[in-house]
Design a protein that fits this description.
Distance between the termini: 24 Å
Structural class: mainly alpha
Number of strands: 4
């Protein structure tokens, strides 16, 4: 079996290296990470310099960033911290990076721009904001739902909105607005689950550009605390993009969520209760001591599970006399 598994791994590796695998990147990462939505994301032009050229480049960068992890042996757990960008000239100027001297996207490792990892990408930061302001709640819900596979509960009925997304920004800064909203006990318990993730990104405005103060001159405070849990009885305090990246990457749900997303995409259906043992086994093999937890290895472990090797019912039929 180990020899057969090795052959499968080699074939699967060649498939991922094939140019045709771009379709997988575009469809899977484009939908899951939202890269396909960046171009159509609305931004108020009077408030932000967000051009169609920058939007297109920012969406493409999200796909190329994911592709780097798919086609290499980089650990998935570096996804939120790798200081890598894929920029064309317009996006490089937007970031304040050296402008590439060639047309087309260029891979850069630039450490002086106060950003790193997936959370530092303009495409993600813009997509998880409203058209005229940031939304820690929106960013936090996105992270919890898409990267930790923990869908937050729906708000209770008749709870007033935090702020209408079509309205002009509040005279209060976003943190103050959230604190006022969370004075309602029905709001506080839900917002405590996801707002901290978004508050840590407040140093990046609604199109992902760095800022240290709000428009009224108030300093941005990117410190925050997740509520108490079994793992962290006193809560978990962290600050800024770097702190957020470490907290999410160290959360066991971060790796589990990738496995679940790939499993569901590969089978073309939601994960069922009968799939869970196979999914857990694949994750254990993927995270085995001494093994590199790359996306390539995860794909390999998933395609060797019975749900991928047999159609529904086929495995059971084979065991019948």
């Amino acid at each position: 079996y180990s020899s057969a598994a090795s052959d499968v791994y080699k074939r699967q590796g060649r498939l991922l290296d094939d140019p045709k695998s771009e379709r997988f990147v575009t469809q899977f990462a484009g939908q899951w990470l939202g890269a396909r939505q960046v171009v159509s994301h609305a931004v108020v032009p009077e408030l932000y310099d967000w051009t169609p050229l920058v939007a297109r480049a920012a969406g493409d960068e999200m796909l190329r960033y994911f592709s780097e992890f798919l086609r290499s042996d980089r650990s998935w757990f570096e996804f939120l911290e790798a200081d890598v960008n894929y920029v064309e000239q317009a996006l490089a100027r937007f970031y304040g990076m050296p402008t590439p001297g060639v047309k087309g996207p260029v891979r850069l490792e630039f450490t002086d721009d106060r950003r790193a990892g997936f959370f530092g990408l303009a495409g993600f930061l813009a997509l998880s904001s409203f058209d005229r302001r940031t939304s820690p709640s929106l960013r936090g819900r996105w992270i919890l739902s898409n990267l930790l596979c923990a869908e937050p509960p729906e708000p209770p009925p008749n709870v007033p909105k935090l702020e209408d997304e079509s309205e002009a920004p509040s005279p209060l800064n976003v943190r103050q607005t959230l604190e006022r909203h969370r004075q309602n006990p029905e709001c506080a318990s839900c917002h405590a689950l996801f707002d901290p993730y978004g508050l840590a990104l407040e140093e990046y405005d609604a199109i992902g550009q760095y800022r240290s103060v709000y428009t009224d001159g108030t300093p941005v405070d990117a410190s925050t605390v997740l509520p108490a849990s079994e793992a962290h009885p006193e809560g978990l305090a962290f600050t800024g993009l770097d702190g957020l990246s470490r907290v999410v990457a160290s959360d066991p749900r971060f790796g589990e969520c990738l496995a679940e997303k790939l499993f569901s995409y590969g089978l073309g259906r939601l994960v069922s209760a009968s799939d869970e043992p196979y999914l857990q086994q694949a994750q254990q093999e993927w995270r085995a001591a001494g093994q590199l937890p790359s996306i390539r290895r995860l794909v390999h472990t998933l395609v060797l599970t019975e749900p991928f090797r047999f159609r529904r019912g086929e495995g059971e039929e084979r065991t019948q006399p």
